[in-house]
């Protein structure tokens, strides 16, 4: 299912990307000539007034960095081949490599997600030897609960995969303006923030791939080692509940990684994740309480 959606989204993005990029470029172009002329005037004034150090930095930025950026921005094919494609290829390479841990190597990442979750569901059903024609109410409640949680995990991870596929592409379509702004000292922070946001959303897919493999192996091991009774099913239900809570940390982890890389402070990552951790622990506590009440109801 997710493989078909990903193919549909990718086809749509490839159709609109060139046109959208050109709209931003057409918006930017009328401002470039007057801005460059003004910049030359400012550099000249600084040279005349003796601000040598500042003028040297400005000259390097103007005659080295700025021309490279302008050539890259003005040619869509160059922009795609030397800026966009390397970023997306690195993300895809990492995601495929991680996904191949739980599946055949070289397979499409989105197809791998479908295959892994089918394998997880089959493992859970086979591990409990559950039959839809011969069941009791307690087994049905627990198995349906596990399957619902697995479905929630699948949807959540699929959402993060699609965010990693779509949002970076949309940000990169608008790359003409922030890249041009990087040529100037006063506006380069806009480009840095744009790039940081793009990389954060690219990380969603990588972290979701890691989480998928983690879920695959932990549930596979749990279903293979536990007994086929209430305690066994309850254990898998609890594991699925905790994994559902963990998946919601993906945005915080991605944001924390990029923030810590930008600031050079590992503490900023823990602060981002810790804020959501308190909320996640409340959710886990509620799940555990509900499971305990269910156990008490059937074993009075």
Describe this structure in words.
With 300 residues, the chain is mainly α. It has one domain (2-28, 76-298). Helices cover 86% and strands 0% of the residues. It has 10 helices and no strands. It has helices spanning 2-48, 52-74, 76-99, 109-128, 137-173, 176-181, 188-225, 230-247, 250-263, 267-298. α3 runs parallel beside α7 (188-225), α4 runs antiparallel to α5 (137-173) and α7 packs across α9. The radius of gyration is 26 Å and the shape is elongated. The two termini are 43 Å apart. The relative contact order is 0.10. The model is unreliable at 279-288 (pLDDT under 50).
Question: How would you sum up this structure in a few lines?
Answer:
The chain is built from ten helices and no strands.
Question: What attributes characterize this protein structure?
Answer:
single chain, 300 residues, mainly alpha, elongated
Q: What share of residues are in beta strands?
A: under 5%
| Count of DSSP-assigned helices | 10
In total, the number of strands is: 0
Helix content: over 70%
Query: In the residues, how many domains can be counted?
Result: 1
| First and last CA, distance | 43 Å
Encode the helix/strand succession as letters: HHHHHHHHHH
Overall SS class: mainly alpha
Using the CA coordinates, give the radius of gyration. 26 Å
| Coarse shape | elongated
Mean pLDDT: 75
- Characterize the largest beta sheet: strand count, sense, and whether it forms a barrel: none
As residue ranges, the low-confidence spans are 279-288
């Amino acid at each position: 299912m997710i493989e078909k959606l990903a193919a549909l989204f990718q086809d749509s993005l490839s159709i609109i990307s060139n046109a959208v990029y050109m709209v931003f470029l057409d918006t930017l172009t009328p401002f470039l000539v007057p801005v460059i002329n003004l910049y030359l005037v400012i550099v000249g004034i600084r040279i005349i007034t003796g601000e040598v150090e500042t003028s040297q930095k400005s000259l390097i930025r103007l005659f080295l960095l700025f021309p490279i950026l302008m050539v890259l921005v003005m040619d869509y094919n160059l922009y795609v081949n030397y800026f966009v494609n390397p970023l997306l290829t690195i993300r895809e390479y990492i995601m495929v490599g991680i996904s191949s841990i739980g599946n055949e190597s070289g397979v499409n990442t989105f197809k791998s997600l479908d295959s892994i979750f089918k394998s997880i569901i089959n493992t859970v059903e086979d591990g409990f030897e559950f039959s839809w024609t011969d069941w009791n109410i307690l087994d049905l409640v627990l198995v349906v609960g596990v399957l619902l949680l697995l479905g929630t995990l699948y949807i959540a991870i699929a959402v993060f995969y699609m965010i990693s596929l779509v949002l970076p592409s949309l940000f990169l379509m608008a790359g003409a303006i922030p890249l041009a702004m990087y040529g100037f000292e006063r506006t380069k922070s806009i480009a840095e923030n744009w790039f940081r946001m793009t990389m954060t959303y690219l990380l969603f897919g990588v972290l979701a791939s890691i989480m998928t493999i983690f879920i695959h192996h932990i549930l596979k091991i749990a279903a293979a080692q536990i007994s086929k009774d209430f305690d066994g099913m309850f254990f898998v239900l609890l594991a699925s509940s905790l994994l559902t809570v963990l998946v919601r940390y993906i945005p915080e982890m991605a944001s924390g990684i990029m923030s810590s890389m930008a600031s050079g402070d590992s503490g900023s990552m823990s602060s981002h994740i810790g804020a959501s951790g308190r909320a996640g622990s409340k959710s886990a506590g509620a799940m555990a309480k509900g499971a305990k009440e269910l156990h008490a109801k059937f074993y009075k």
